[in-house]
Amino acid sequence: MGMTTTAAPNAALTTQQHNPAAADPAPNKTPAPAADPAAPANTAVPANTTAPIATTALPNNAVAPNNAVAPNNAVAPNNAVAPNQTSLPIRDRDCFGHRPRPITLPTAPTLPNIGCIPQPSIDLAGAPAGRGLTTNPEGWPANTVSTAGGYRIVPEGNTNWSIYAPGQNHGDKAHTRIWGDPHVAEKDGTNWDFTKSSDFVLGDGTRIFARTSADTGQSVTVGLDIVNGADRISVSDVNTNPKLSATTHDGYEWRAQHLASDPNRDSFHLRGDQNNVQWVRERNQKIDGVVTGATFDAAQNRYEQTVDATQKNVGLDPSLRPAFGSRAWGNQLRSELNDRQAKIYGNLGQTFGNPQLGVNAAVNNAGQIHQNHHQQQFRTDLRDLFSQIFGGFGGGAGNFGFGGLSYLFALRDLLLSGNDFRRQYQFGMASTIGW
User: Fold this and answer.
1) Cβ 293 vs Cβ 304: under 8 Å
2) Helices (H), 51-208
3) Per residue in 149-173, pLDDT tens?
4) What is the chain's alpha carbon radius of gyration, rounded to the nearest angstrom?
């Protein structure tokens, strides 16, 4: 007859084991079970049988005194940091002027001084900026002026001058042609006239001041002042043989003086698209509508435009304005801001009976816009140069061959050109333009 084995019963803990007041001589051992009368005398408990473990709990979930924790999880009194921890001292101020909280880090070598990330600043951001005007582009007549947004202004002489839209070539029908006393001929066939000196504002923010021989009668164009960004070019003798001045860098200041001295001057703003030309008249700082023609007003002894007042909010096709984020776009933003603020200062000066005070304020404000232009032009030049050196995936590898020195020389010239930017800014502020 073989041996029969019986597993130890999984009996519940005795009352004595759950009663903390009772003595427990061996809390981690369970007494052997009583002999089973029905089992043979040689019955054994299997070796892999786990005996119940007695536990002892504090009455009513009480916490041990003084927040004591088992020795293997002990924490030093008074919230002291464990020996393997260290607390960094609190600095008076962080990078942004705030009082930081204490920092607790594991013991480690001293961290290197990696500096601070600069706070966001308007001086470190802004629209790109670039050159506003150039002269004599290839394939165009002498004395042609190109704008940052791709427009061409061609002084033809004998009172005639033309405006070509971006993408047009010499020999195409001009987007707008001004001739005679003065007549305005649009590409789409619309014709109208004006008499007194007026402004023409192109789609890239370029402002052309057309100076006429008189504000009454049958005048003719005698000169042009062309301004884009910080650049200005004057064209004289348009009625005979046009002559271009050197490019000056007082564009913002001249523009502010020009508008603040007469905020109510007539201005014609280009709208429409490549094939449908629409000039919107602004008079007395109000948009009147699209110019559709003109008649000669004998009472005032000058031409008066016919305006469609139902077309005031006319759009401009994207092909006639600078690409978003381009240098020409940045020039346009600053120029339009300058125009609006100059008119406000001009109005204030006239309101308080001191027009010159308004002009002075407008020019000083333009100087700040001019300064921002130069700062952003420098940063844009630097960004573009580094893009050429390191631009493109793996682009830097091929740029440091024989051409590498040319990039380094270009970088040197660019860094040194900061002085040129400052001189241009000082020239713009110090130019004698009427303030």
Assistant:
1) no
2) none
3) 999 999 999 999 999 999 999 999 9
4) 42
Q: Determine the Cα–Cα distance for residues 187 and 268; give it in Å rounded to an integer.
A: 16
Contact 24, 54 (CB under 8 A): yes
CA distance 336 to 206: 9
Note whether 70 and 86 are within 8 A (CB): no
CA distance 20 to 203: 92
Helix (H) or strand (E) holding 384: helix 355-390
| Token pair of 355 as six digits | 């027009």
Domain assignment of residue 312, given as a range:
133-392+399-430
Amino acid at 90: I
Q: For residue 109, is it within any domain? A: no
Task: Enter the tokens of residue 431.
Answer: 């130019």
Average pLDDT score over the chain: 77
Looking at residue 383, what is its pLDDT? Answer: 76
What span, in angstroms and rounded, lies between the C-alpha atoms of 431 and 424? 10
Task: Give mean pLDDT, residues 51-59.
Answer: 45
Work out how many domains the chain is built from and give that number: 1
Q: pLDDT band for position 23 (50/70/90)? A: very low
Tokens of 92: 């008076």
- Single-letter residue type at 169: N
Does 59 score more than 90 pLDDT? no
Instruction: Give the separation between CA 186 and CA 288, rounded to whole angstroms.
Output: 19
Tokens matching residue 88: 């960094």
Angle of the 251-261 helix axis to the 355-390 helix axis, nearest 10: 150
Structure tokens at 358: 């308004």
Question: Phi and psi for 289 in degrees, rounded to 5?
Answer: 140, -175
Q: Tell me, what's the pLDDT at 52?
A: 47
For residue 414, the model assigns a pLDDT of 57
Name the pTM for this structure.
0.67
Q: Coil, strand or helix: which one is 293? A: strand
Run of H or E residues at 302: strand 302-308
Is residue 373 included in any domain, yes or no? yes
- The answer as to whether 241 is a domain residue is yes
DSSP state of 263: T
Residue 138 belongs to some domain of the structure: yes
